[in-house]
Each structure stands twice: as structure tokens, then as C-alpha cells.
Amino acid sequence: MAKLLEVYNLTTHFYTDNGVVEAVDGISYSVDEGEIVGIVGESGCGKSVSALSIMGLIPDPPGKIVEGEVIFDGQDLLKLSSAQMTQDSWQRHCDGSLYCDLELHLNMTASAASQRAAELLSLVGIPDAERRLKDYPHQMSGGMRQRVMIAMAVSCNPKLIIADEPTTALDMTIQAQILELMQGCRPNWGRR
Ligand SMILES: Nc1ncnc2c1ncn2[C@@H]1O[C@H](COP(=O)(O)OP(=O)(O)OP(=O)(O)O)[C@@H](O)[C@H]1O
């Protein structure tokens, strides 16, 4: 299977008043197309920082990626400028609504985007999805908001999703449903 993501010797440090925190210390791994890779480790071992490093979201200062390569789809992401990273599809799910994502990134008409957004909300287990589409975040429960984020993550059929503790705020039943959903809908992420 083709390699989708290759991480070599990724090393991220934070330069704090109390010294250098070697948060990520030379990790290497790869992810094939359609493959699920789990990263486990004790609290503070660098799981989140390694994910943020890949996405170009390390706050600099105090953080810095001091070494490594992150090859996604044949391109070294660490060599891209921040403007290129922002323009690129990498960070498109960091803001905006589900509906706007569909309109902007898949060039859907407003009514098609609305219909697909309702489908995606149903897919992640939000009841009465059409009505809920018009809700503001504060009108939803924490678990619902988390499921909307997952719907946004899968909405544009991404090749890769980096999910950092995607089920933490959810109860056990919903946790299982979300993991099943993420597992079951790759590589087309639920697209019919
Ligand atoms: N902005 C920062 N400034 C200084 N140190 C930081 C910063 N962000 C993270 N760290 C440090 O980097 C290390 C790795 O943190 P990270 O959040 O990646 O851990 P984690 O493995 O995801 O932990 P957990 O499982 O508890 O979420 C920790 O020692 C943390 O204190």
C-alpha cells in the first residue's frame, strides 16, 4: 500500500524560562493510505505536540521543530512557509462551519451543502439533524459539539485525519459509535 504520511526523526522543543522541554525527541513512523495508526504513551510524553508539529500548529516561540521531515503526499510539510500551510487543505477544518466547509471546499450549492451537512450530522449520531443545523455551538451539549467536529473532519473526504483524543468528552456508547464510524467510513469517509 502507498505511504500517505511519513514522519522521520521529528524533534520539537519548547524554550521556556525554566529550560528546554524536549517534548518530542526524534519520532519516526508512517501511515499507509486507509491505515489507522494509534499513538499511545503516558501523560506528557509528547503525543499532542507531535500531532501539532505535523500540522504546523506549534506556537513559535516558545516551541520549535528543531529536526525532522514530515512527508505528506510526497511533500515535506516542514519546508512549507506558514502562508503555504494556511492556504493548503491542511488547516481548513480549524475554523468555519460544517456548512461553509462543504460550500467552500467541495463547491457545493447552498442546498446541496445543507443536505449533505444534515446527512453528516445524522451519521455522527445527532438526532433531528436538519433542525440542529441551525443551532449555535452553545445550544449543543459537549458531546454533540465533539460529534460536529468529527462530522467536519470527515466532510471533505480527507485522505488523512489526525484525531487527538476524539472521544474524551463522550459517554462509552457514543465513544464506541464514533470509533466505529471513523473505522467504517474510510477511505471515503461516509460518502455514498
Ligand atoms: N507551550 C508549551 N510550552 C512548554 N512546554 C509545553 C508546551 N506545550 C506542551 N509542552 C510540554 O510538552 C510535553 C508534551 O506535551 P503533550 O501535550 O504532547 O503531552 P501528551 O502526551 O499529549 O499528554 P496527555 O496524554 O496528558 O495529553 C509536556 O511535558 C508538556 O508540558
Automatic annotation (TrEMBL):
Task: Fetch the InterPro entries from UniProt.
Answer: AAA+_ATPase (IPR003593), ABC_Ni/Peptide_Import (IPR050388), ABC_transporter-like_ATP-bd (IPR003439), ABC_transporter-like_CS (IPR017871), P-loop_NTPase (IPR027417)
GO molecular function annotation: ATP binding; ATP hydrolysis activity
Domain spans labelled ABC transporter: 5-192
Q: Does the keyword Nucleotide-binding apply?
A: yes
Q: Which domain of life is it from?
A: Eukaryota
> Where is this gene product found?
Cell membrane
| UniProt cross-references to CDD domains, sorted A to Z | ABC_NikE_OppD_transporters
Give the membrane topology, semicolon-separated if more than one.
Answer: Peripheral membrane protein
**GO cellular component labels:** plasma membrane
Record-linked PANTHER family: DIPEPTIDE TRANSPORT ATP-BINDING PROTEIN DPPD, OLIGOPEPTIDE TRANSPORT ATP-BINDING PROTEIN APPD
| Record has Aminoacyl-tRNA synthetase as a keyword | no
Entry keyword set: ATP-binding, Cell membrane, Membrane, Nucleotide-binding, Transport
User: What PROSITE patterns does the record tag this protein with?
Assistant: ABC_TRANSPORTER_1, ABC_TRANSPORTER_2
* UniProt protein name: Probable peptide ABC transporter ATP-binding protein y4tR
